[in-house]
Amino acid sequence: MSQARAIVCHDTHGDGGWKMEDVYVRKPKEGELLVEMVASGICHTDALVGSLAGGASPIAFYPRVLGHEGSGYVKEVGPNVTVAKPGDPVLLSFAFCDDCAVCKAGHKSHCNDFMPLNFGDVNRSFGSESGKEDIGGCFFGQSSFANLSIVQQCSVVNAKDLVKDKRELQLFAPLGCGVQTGSGTVVNAAQAGPEDSIVITGMGGVGLSAVMGAVVQGCKTIIGIDLVESRLDLAKEMGATHVINGGKLPDGKELADVVKEMTDGQGPTISIDTTGVPALTKGACAWTRNRGKVIQVGTSPFDFKLEIEVFSWMASGKQFIGAIEGQAYPKVSLQPIR
């Protein structure tokens, strides 16, 4: 086993919480790599999973190492690993089985085993003491909140021909989730084009990446919604045609009223929620025009249930679509970097 440092998430509803700890990492098994991380982004999903009460959900087990926007250098490979060799720089993304019908059809991010492979207690690759394996790892195939971590081969994109130095490798770490999710949702799930008007709620990393994706796709109207002015300013710099501060609406108007005014009174053809806030998901369902698409990207509270009046929804022809990781295949989506 190798000694490492990791941010270990204990049951945050008990007396544990998040702690930087010395841990041990086992050797890689078949189809696995040992990766030395150089950077990791932080996603809302990390915070959400880390805040669940133990036993409240099948994915709420502790202790564990989270993190799923990692990049680093390969230190060691297990048997039958072909994607990289020691010393190679790698970008990391989600895990998938590559064997179910959904994966074979090219939709890796909706793998039939996506939940257990990425969230489940399937791989205790860290130990609190040498010889133990009592700390969960391989979150989204990688557990990037550690300086050394076991990574699944399917989660690896070899970056040796894509980055020129360690600094670039660090900067590109969020490509594996945030950037890929935002831009991929616009391109793959929404299949947006020049005739589309698009509303994106939440101007964090995912939402801003969706704005950039909408610009690339040539959408005629791109509306960003947030509560933070600096994020809205950045959205405009990145190409949003309109922005709305949800906390500073005109007197007497609801958010849906403002959205519809900016989209010819009909509402957008595409609405993407990156926040997971139930009120915004419900709002998107209401303000999206007939035959439009409502795409849920942000992780909502696990007990949130969306209720719709079936007949009117059927008559409207709207679609409600769930999208994970931008419905992207990392080995394709992360290639055109340079």
Structure, explained:
With 338 residues, this protein is α/β, with parallel strands linked by helices. The chain has 2 domains: 2-176, Quinone Oxidoreductase, Chain A, domain 1 (Alpha-Beta Complex); 179-327, Rossmann fold, CATH 3.40.50.720. It contains 11 helices and 15 strands. Strand 13, helix 9 and strand 14 (293-296) form a beta-alpha-beta unit. The two termini are 37 Å apart. The mean pLDDT is 93.
Concise summary:
The protein has 338 residues and is an alpha/beta fold. It is built from eleven helices and 15 strands.
Number of domains: 2
CATH architecture of the largest domain: Alpha-Beta Complex
Report how far apart the termini are.
37 Å
Order of helices and strands: EEEHEEEHHEEEHHEHEHEHEHEHEH
Biggest sheet overview? 6 strands, parallel
Strand order of the largest sheet: 12-11-10-13-14-15
Output the CATH topology of the largest domain: Quinone Oxidoreductase, Chain A, domain 1
- Roughly what is the average pLDDT, rounded to an integer? 93
Helix content: 10-25%
Radius of gyration, rounded?
21 Å
The proportion of strand residues reads: 15-25%
Large-scale geometry: elongated
